[in-house]
Amino acid sequence: MSDLVPLEEVERAAARIAGVALRTPLVPFPLSDPRLLVKAESLQPIGAFKLRGAYATIAAMPEDRRQKGVVTHSSGNHAQAVAYTARALDIPVVLVIPHTTPGVKVDACIALGAEIVYVEPTMEDRVATAERLAEAHGFTLVPPFDHAGIIAGQGTVGLEIVQDCPDAGVVLVPVGGGGLIAGVAAAVKQLSPETKVIGVEPELAADARASFRAGKPVAWSAEETSRTIADALRAQRLGDLTFAHINEYVDDIITVTEDEIRLTMRRLARQARLIAEPGGAVATAGYLFHRHELPSAETYVSVLSGGNVDPALFLEVLA
Fold it and tell me: Is 221 an annotated catalytic residue?
């Protein structure tokens, strides 16, 4: 399909983010059999993979357009990525954020100098407010997931996985709005077609699995998706472009429970010495608790997408 992101775009994004985003390690999960390697995106400067897509997209803009400033809507990690990028490039930035976003993520955005606009936690309110601000002030809207540049930037995660672990048989990826899995799957499948790519999401926000089964994007309500502890994965619907990539490249999507997410956060901290926010833990939870649903392989890779967890919640989970 011509609208799918080609490997060359992912490679160009990798060149743009070099020296800005960290090439994160594949950390062995202790005593895993078969072998599990955790792609630790929690080690990024902003604590999540989102820096890849945000920087790759904004850095590719014409200078005159970029200097007018950017606006985005996000539940936290993408907002922080855009704020970090704007500060690095010295441009204005406004963030439209649901009022339910964890304080640890909001505080990080404020510390980066971003202007914050709070909205209700629905995609409709987020998008409408961001579009209104863009039109009124001449900002460029940087979408959180349904954008070719964002997908290419997030695809650098998959590029690194194949380069650093050519024998990976199964790659497990969290699914929210679909930008990460769209990019990872596009990169992995174009480099290593035999590698299986499996999406993982909370069963309380399983719109992506419903979409995958139905063959078209299926929306869940904000009330439904807000039930999960995984705040980063509360997107109510996959984007049209992210769904097109998932439909073309992803082999399956499975779900994990809230208890499994919490237990995985604890095990990642205690056994692998990695901090994971709830949404960041779901891919590893898929390996730990649902391997019977996964294709067999000698080596699995799970993407730990972020570590920006509320301190009180993290202490509760560890206890």
Answer: no
